[in-house]
Amino acid sequence: MQTDLACSRLRELILDGVYPPGSRLTETEVAATLHTSRTPVREALRALAADGLVRPAGRGVVVVALEEGDLDEAYQVRAALEALTAELAAVRQREGRIAPADLRELHDVAARTATATAEGRLTDAVPLNRRFHRTIAELAANALALRTLERVWDQIQVSTLRSLAPPARHAHVSAQHEDLLAAITGGRPEEAAAIARAHVLDTRVTTMKEGRP
């Protein structure tokens, strides 16, 4: 239990940029920050290393950012998996297997994401954007796809936190989300998959042009 809590909290600190790429972490330092013993921290660091978020460095670890080629590959995998989950969600909606309350939650997250990005509240927008895509993956009901996406999302988020930052992207991202919502709500699998794939690849192009922070 302590290991799970330590891993979850440390993952949050990395994803939020408290420990940006290149940060060197030691068991002692992290244990002090998390107010726990070194044993759960040691196990947490091993788990995060297995997920590709940190790598061993001397007596500690270093937070890892994907190189450009690896980041491009991560986006390709994300695009394929999000196309799959959007397709599966639309199929389940067409077959009446998605509860209305769950669909309303997806619409609510999309609206909150659009508002946060339009107002320039990127600290709120980034996790909301991820929650939007995660909710679609949950509606797809494919546990393996969701687990794999979680790892890919983590690696991408550590490597770049500003895919929503350019002002010109705000309306564009929100419009793509609305199109994706419409396709899933309407039970149109092929359309949902195409929109999801295009959305991720579009984000990839913008990220590569902007460069990583």
From TrEMBL:
Q: Where is the HTH gntR-type domain?
A: 1-66
Question: Which SUPFAM superfamilies does the entry mention?
Answer: GntR ligand-binding domain-like, Winged helix' DNA-binding domain
Q: What is this protein called?
A: GntR family transcriptional regulator
Query: Mind telling me which InterPro entries this protein's record contains?
Result: GntR_C, TF_FadR/GntR_C, Tscrpt_reg_HTH_GntR, WH-like_DNA-bd_sf, WH_DNA-bd_sf
Q: Cite the CDD domains for this sequence.
A: WHTH_GntR
> Pfam family of this protein, just one?
GntR
- Species this chain originates from: Actinomadura luzonensis
- Transmembrane parts of this sequence: none
Gene3D superfamilies cross-referenced by the UniProt entry:
GntR ligand-binding domain-like, Winged helix-like DNA-binding domain superfamily/Winged helix DNA-binding domain
Give the signal peptide as a residue range, or say none if absent.
none
> Keyword annotations for this protein?
DNA-binding, Transcription, Transcription regulation
